[in-house]
Amino acid sequence: MTFLYGLNKLRLCALLLITGLIICLTACGPKAIPYSQSSDTPEPNAVAVAHYNWGIAYADEGNFGQAIMELSLAIQSEPGWVMPFFTLGVVYGNSGELDRAIQAWERATQLDADFAKAHYNLAVAYSHKAEKALSIASLREAIRLDKAALSSAKTEPAFDNIRNTPEFQDLLTN
């Protein structure tokens, strides 16, 4: 009889432990990676998320080649997910490959037209390439979507070559 009591107590403890873990993981667990900046899109598949996370980890380590490969695999697995495109642009930008960074950020803005950070990064990249009109247009869109982009633009060294243009000054006054 004591054995049966102990067995029931063990089951109760296991049930409480599992319930506690479920509550912890749903309340305190890792936050979902957005499929897009807009909130009404479905979540990406698990394979894409795994490759994306590995890409981020490799990028953080400075292993840009491996990061590019993993982010490309995430894109292959989930071609409608904006975050791997955005992050791929960051990796390419940090690698000095502005043309590829621009392609990635352009795709990110096609997938999510309201992705202010992608528009802002495009403005920086275009400014580095001395494509003033494209830089101003991208910066204008970033500011329209997120007013914080304006304060960042005021001090961004990449905009030094366009800071004194009438178009840039117009952004500051509107």
Structure write-up:
This protein is mainly α. Among the domains are: 44-97, Serine Threonine Protein Phosphatase 5, Tetratricopeptide repeat (Alpha Horseshoe); 113-174, no CATH class. The chain is 73% helix and 0% strand. It is built from 9 helices and no strands. It has helices at residues 2-28, 46-61, 64-77, 82-94, 98-111, 116-128, 132-145, 148-155, 166-173. Helix 7 runs antiparallel to helix 8. The longest helix is centred in the first third of the chain and has 27 residues, at 2-28. The chain is elongated and about 45 Å long.
Brief characterization of the structure:
Helix content is 73%, strand content 0%. It has 174 residues and is mainly alpha-helical. The longest helix has 27 residues, at 2-28.
| Poorly predicted runs of 5 or more residues | 1-7, 12-36
- Hey, roughly how much beta strand do the residues contain? under 5%
* Number of β-strand runs: 0
> How would you state the average pLDDT, rounded?
83
Shape: elongated
What does the radius of gyration come to? Answer: 23 Å
- Helices and strands, in N-to-C order? HHHHHHHHH
Report helical residue fraction: over 70%
Counting copies of identical and different chains, the oligomeric state is: single chain
Main sheet: strands, sense, barrel: none
What structural category characterises the helix and strand content?
Answer: mainly alpha
Distance between the termini: 81 Å
| Number of helical regions | 9
